[in-house]
Here is the input.
Amino acid sequence: MDDSSIVLLLWNRSETALKELAAKYGRFCHKIALNILGVPEDAEECVNDTYLSVWNSIPPHRPSVLPPYIGRIAKNHALNLYNKKHAEKRGGSNLPLVFEELDEVIAGSESADSELYRQEMIAAINDFLGSLPEEKRKIFVRRYWYSDSVKDIAARMQMTENNVSVSLNRMRNQLRTKLLEGGLIS
Here is the structure.
């Protein structure tokens, strides 16, 4: 079933929509949650919470592109559960390492709490991502949006783990330079 049909079913409050949503995006949501939480049972809880949130948010929202909409909800549920449990690095979770890697790039900004700063940072990161070749952009997004491990990215992209690590390091340095030049970090 295509995404617009699923959205229409959700809009019309048809319970069939949840079955279709689970069939098409269940593995996608589970992978996002599992990468963050590292515990299959917690990931499954997040997936179920995701379905409920999607059900409750459509209507009034009517997303034109369903995967990022659902992915963002799944990621937010996983991050909330991660924070709620005050989890230290548990088996399989990449989240502390992912945050540590990005912290090297954006740490030290003085006005990180301001909405204007947040919007400027988002715009700068989007510009940076838009400037990357497609393969590099996929590597960056897989690591820092989906929290995939370097090993998983290497397998997906048919690269060595070392190549992925080097690419990520170079992209973080490029992003840091862009943010420095834009005055967003010091």
